[in-house]
Amino acid sequence: MTLWVDADACPGAIKELIIRTAMRLKINTVFVANKYISTPESIYVSSLRIGADPEAVDLYIVENARPGDFVVTQDIPLASALVPRGVTVISTRGQLFTEANIGERLSIRNFMQDLRDSGGITPGPKEFSQKDKQRFADTLDRELTRQMRMRKET
Q1: CA distance 89 to 113
Q2: What 3-state class would DSSP assign to 40?
């Protein structure tokens, strides 16, 4: 299993939590971004700088993530490309994207984008909070534990 992180907009607190988790559980983790991302010296954690194209990170993750891998992203279209392929995807706020909810999440995202494109004013994202960080930590731990348990059973 590889833990992929769409790192361009990943909050620092989430990045640190992912690094600690990866090293503790010995999970190969790759931070993928359009810019340089500093990571500690570790055989489990690395970063990969992809070209400046805004879609390059998403395309790289889609091309390289495999069923059973884990992805952290705020990008709903990226999540919608990965979930049907058997990749576990969570947002940096701890929301687990599933077959049951990804269609609705993508529809809402597209609706809001259409509103903005037509000149409508929409609220921006809420400020990242301690509650968001805790929800992310809980979801990450629960889903990694579930996947590791499933791997031991097979």
Answers
A1: 22
A2: coil
pTM for this structure?
A: 0.86
Give 37's Cβ-side CA count (13 Å radius). Answer: 25
Residue bearing tokens 């993750």: 61
Q: How far is CA 129 from CA 7, 37, 126, 138, in A?
A: 18, 22, 8, 14
Residue 139 CA, distance from chain mean position: 12
Task: Tell me the C-alpha to C-alpha distance, in Å, between residue 144 and each of 29, 50, 52, 121.
Answer: 13, 26, 31, 38
Task: Judge: domain 2-99+128-153, CATH 3.90.70.
Answer: no
Q: Considering only CA atoms, which of 58, 59, 39, 17 is closest in space to residue 144?
A: 17
Q: Residue ranges per domain, the chain?
A: 2-99+128-153
Q: What is the per-residue pLDDT across 75-133, written as a single tens digit (0 to 9) for each?
A: 999 999 999 999 999 999 999 999 887 777 766 656 667 666 777 776 666 788 999 99
